[in-house]
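Need residues for this backbone.
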């Protein structure tokens, strides 16, 4: 069986499981329907002249924040999907059986996260569609290639963080603490709801060590100002460095965690 067939088997299984609780997905979409208008009316209170920090992004607070919420939600959900995918296999007592099969560990980790990542991507698209179709958010200057490149590199970064989170779950037999901590830090310093330029100098320095800071900066400039890859090279380079550092660290951490769990007999659900 090829890797593609193995991944498809995971997606098909998780789809069948998710289809039994369609109300959950419908409620997630309803949350978007309520959140987008809230951000729109909040944005009407903030005029470009009153907030010069928004000028690099076109001065429209609604455009600024809807992109921040949509993409921060996507990457946090993607990271959580990697962690919860391994955790669910673990709790269900199927991780041991899967790992003794010919399926590589990386394929297991990727496959277990694909469906949840796809759902998160749909939610992100719905945020942007609601902004465009209902509130007339303009993406007329958008540089799709630059935005897509940023998203792809960031997906590698958050997949690696998800592997690290999975490793911590297997070793400490606990919930997904890392995703929650990183999401909280990102909301504070990465510019999800406000530009990082309004932060204090120490927090601005900290924000440079948070991958989402560079992601949101690049995506906003690409979608709202038409910035190309050359103009975003500083942000993309930072993301590439995060990816080069975290990817091997994530894979080695997950391998070590599985090996430790096998040695202590904790690979089967607890």
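Answer:
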């Amino acid at each position: 069986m090829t890797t593609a067939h193995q991944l498809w088997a995971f997606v098909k299984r998780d789809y069948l499981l998710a289809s039994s609780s369609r109300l959950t997905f419908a409620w997630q979409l309803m949350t978007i329907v309520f959140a987008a208008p809230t951000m729109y009316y909040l944005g009407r209170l903030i005029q470009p002249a009153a907030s010069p920090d928004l000028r690099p992004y076109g001065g429209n607070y609604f455009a600024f924040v809807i992109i921040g919420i949509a993409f921060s939600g996507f990457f946090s959900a993607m990271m959580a999907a990697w962690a919860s995918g391994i955790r669910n296999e673990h709790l269900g007592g199927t991780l041991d059986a899967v790992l003794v099969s010919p399926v590589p560990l990386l394929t297991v980790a990727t496959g277990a996260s694909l469906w949840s990542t796809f759902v998160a991507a749909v939610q992100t698209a719905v945020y942007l569609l609601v902004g465009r179709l209902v509130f007339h958010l303009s993406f007329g200057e958008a540089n799709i290639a630059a935005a897509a490149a940023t998203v792809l590199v960031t997906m590698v970064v958050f997949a690696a963080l998800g592997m690290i989170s999975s490793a911590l779950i297997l070793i400490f037999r606990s919930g997904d603490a890392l995703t929650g901590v990183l999401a909280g830090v990102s909301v504070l310093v990465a510019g999800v709801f406000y530009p990082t330029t309004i932060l204090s100098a120490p927090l601005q320095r900290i924000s440079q060590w948070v991958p989402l800071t560079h992601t949101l900066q690049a995506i906003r400039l690409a979608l709202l100002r038409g910035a190309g890859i050359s103009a975003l090279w500083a942000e993309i380079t930072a993301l590439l460095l995060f990816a080069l550092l975290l990817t091997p660290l994530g894979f080695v951490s997950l391998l070590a965690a599985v090996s430790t769990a096998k040695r202590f007999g904790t690979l089967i659900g607890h």
